[in-house]
């Protein structure tokens, strides 16, 4: 979750300005709208596999999918970090801005993506959801904060970086308690959203027990509530509707 106290300390600093490769990372506002076409399930056997050591054995079957945003970073950098034992974290899949896709952990294994978590799945309240979920990390910087018409994200613990990509949009998430977190989000490109839908359809084809109620968010399952805010700015209901169209 965004550290607001640290942000206000950083306000006194001169921020860095980073301009992403907009051709690869983000689309213009004109192309942000969904193209309403039915998307076919992705053939999971065609996905590039780059094994992460950050995994272990499951103690349950696959029951759900958990969606995340990565926070700041490039697709390649995030993949490399999640393969580094020092990260003590991983995901089954990483999805880039331009729909690049890499699998890091076989879905029969437990990836370390959810952390402390709980949710009622298949009628049973479950904890440590890494054991029964597939984690998808979606490249996006996460919550952006506006100041004087400019937008910033926190990179690491020391740097406040100005977002210089496509115009951010207002966004919010609602936690299970009803508490709302508002802010700004960098748009998720259409090509990225479409690949996410195809990937989820491919996973559900392999694990047909996953229903629409089992497409979960990291912010929704994390404990204690408020520990996470991802995938911030992603229209979850639209994604779910298109997965099950």
Salient structural properties:
alpha/beta, Lysozyme-like
Describe this entry's structure for a reader.
The protein has 245 residues and is an alpha/beta fold. It has one domain: Peptidoglycan recognition protein-like (Lysozyme-like), CATH 3.40.80.10. Helices cover 20% and strands 28% of the residues. The chain has six helices and 16 strands. The protein has helices at residues 4-10, 22-25, 75-82, 190-206, 218-221, 236-243; strands at residues 16-18, 48-49, 55-57, 64-69, 93-95, 101-103, 109-111, 118-121, 124-127, 133-138, 143-147, 150-155, 159-163, 169-174, 180-185, 215-217. The strands form four sheets. The chain has a six-stranded mixed β-sheet with strand order 1-13-12-11-15-14, with no helix packed on it. Helix 4 crosses helix 6 (236-243). The chain is globular. The two termini are 32 Å apart.
Mean pLDDT: 87
Overall SS class? alpha/beta
Largest sheet: 6 strands, mixed
Q: How are the strands ordered across the major sheet?
A: 1-13-12-11-15-14
Beta-strand proportion: 25-35%
Q: Any idea what the radius of gyration is?
A: 17 Å
Low-confidence stretches: 1-35
Which series of helices and strands comes N to C? HEHEEEHEEEEEEEEEEEHEHH
Shape: globular
Determine the number of helices (DSSP H or I, runs of at least 4 residues): 6
What do we call the CATH topology? Lysozyme-like
Tell me the total number of β-strands.
16
């Amino acid at each position: 979750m965004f550290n607001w106290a640290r942000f206000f300390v950083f306000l006194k600093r001169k921020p860095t300005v980073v301009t992403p490769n907009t051709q690869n990372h983000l689309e213009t506002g004109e192309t942000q709208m969904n193209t309403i076409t039915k998307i076919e399930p992705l053939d999971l056997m065609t996905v590039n596999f780059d094994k992460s050591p950050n995994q272990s054995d499951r103690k349950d079957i696959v029951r759900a999918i958990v969606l995340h945003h990565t926070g700041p970073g490039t697709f390649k950098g995030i993949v490399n970090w999640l393969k580094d034992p020092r990260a003590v974290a991983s995901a089954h899949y990483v999805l880039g801005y331009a729909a690049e896709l890499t699998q890091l952990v076989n879905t029969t294994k437990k990836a370390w993506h959810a952390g402390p978590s709980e949710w009622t799945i298949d009628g049973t309240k479950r904890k440590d959801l890494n054991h029964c979920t597939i984690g998808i990390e979606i490249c996006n910087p996460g919550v952006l904060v506006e100041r004087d018409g400019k937008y910033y994200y926190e990179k690491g613990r020391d740097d406040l970086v100005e977002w210089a990509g496509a115009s951010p949009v207002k966004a919010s998430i609602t936690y299970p308690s009803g508490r709302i977190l508002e802010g700004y989000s960098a748009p998720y490109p259409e090509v990225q959203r479409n690949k996410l839908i195809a990937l989820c359809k491919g996973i559900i084809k392999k694990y047909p027990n996953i229903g629409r109620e089992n497409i979960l968010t990291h912010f929704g399952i994390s404990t204690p509530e408020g520990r996470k805010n991802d995938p911030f700015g992603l229209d979850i209901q639209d994604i779910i509707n298109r997965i099950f169209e």
